[in-house]
Amino acid sequence: MKKSIFISSLIVFVFFFHENGLAQKSKKEKFKMLVLYENGGHHLAFSKAAKPWLNKLADDKGFTIDYIENTKTINDALLKQYQVFLQLDYPPYTWSEEAMKAFENYIKNGTGGWIGLHHATLLGEFDGYPMWQWFSDFMGGIRFVNYIPEFADAKIIIEDKSHPVTKGLPSSFYIKKEEWYVYDKSPRQNVHVLGAADESTYTPDSKIKMGDHPVIWTNEHLASRNVYIFMGHSPDLFENEAYTTLLKNAVFWAAGKK
């Protein structure tokens, strides 16, 4: 009788600590992501496709997402709540002084990770706003000068296959119907390039080229885990397995989970 009671107690003890351990692990793996997205203009279709894809990823993997459409609420207190900040096709202008300073602190202090897509490098003077010099430096010291308005397909070459963001990607893959940006210079000297566009594969061909054309990179000079992914215009990107793998990797790496 005593032996039976001992075995039962042992089973309860083991079960309790096993379940408690799983609960602690589950709690530890969860994180919060803030998504700043454009809710208008010609990037609206991409935003509309991105939201359900991100929501499913969050549901499947157990993290949460809050969405904002402008920078009015961004300050230090808000950003401290999030382990990842996703700048989803939102440009680096129209930000208030408070929002800009809070974002700079978030990146410089490593408060959380950051992913920027496409429009995040629309750096220059637009709509009466001056260029955000700190953000330009963050992106490798670049300034937007041109783009391919007719769109083009292109091959992406992965340059660093060992980085967590590129895990599971083929050595090269194609992106269709993108409006490839041209900057005043390549950011390569100031950032770590993970992937670049092969401009010789533009289809249709275009005279709007910059030569060395990084499209995926991270600035390792700052405390925050950060990655910029240029591709982010067509909603069809969410049907591209290489792109969705890249974006999923970026989310979990920026959150410190990879």
Secondary-structure map:
Layout: H1 2-29, E1 32-37, H2 44-61, E2 64-68, H3 76-79, E3 84-88, H4 97-108, E4 113-117, H5 133-138, E5 144-147, E6 152-158, E7 172-178, E8 181-183, E9 192-203, E10 214-218, E11 226-229, H6 241-254
Parallel strand pairs: 1-2, 1-3, 3-4, 4-11
Antiparallel strand pairs: 5-8, 6-7, 6-9, 9-10, 10-11
Give a quick set of tags describing it:
258 residues; alpha/beta; nine-stranded mixed sheet; two-stranded antiparallel sheet; 11 strands; 24% strand
Q: What does this entry show, briefly?
A:
The chain is α/β, with parallel strands linked by helices and 258 residues long. The protein is built from 6 helices and 11 strands. The chain has helices at residues 2-29, 44-61, 76-79, 97-108, 133-138, 241-254; strands spanning 32-37, 64-68, 84-88, 113-117, 144-147, 152-158, 172-178, 181-183, 192-203, 214-218, 226-229.
**What is the gyration radius calculated from CA atoms?**
21 Å
H/E element sequence: HEHEHEHEHEEEEEEEH
Portion in strands: 15-25%
Indicate the multimeric state: single chain
Q: Treating each run of at least 4 consecutive H or I residues as one helix, how many helices?
A: 6
Q: Which overall shape is indicated by the principal axes computed on the Cα atoms? A: globular
Widest sheet: strand order?
A: 2-1-3-4-11-10-9-6-7
Given as residue ranges, the uncertain stretches (5+ residues, pLDDT < 50) are: 6-28
According to DSSP, the number of beta strands is 11
Q: Largest beta sheet, briefly?
A: 9 strands, mixed
Would you mind describing this structure in some detail?
The chain has 258 residues and is an alpha/beta fold. The chain contains 6 helices and 11 strands. The protein has helices at residues 2-29, 44-61, 76-79, 97-108, 133-138, 241-254; strands at residues 32-37, 64-68, 84-88, 113-117, 144-147, 152-158, 172-178, 181-183, 192-203, 214-218, 226-229. The strands form 2 sheets. Strands 2-1-3-4-11-10-9-6-7 form a 9-stranded mixed beta sheet, with helices on one face. It has a two-stranded antiparallel sheet with strand order 5-8. Strand 10 and strand 11 (226-229) form a beta hairpin. It starts with a helix and ends with a helix.
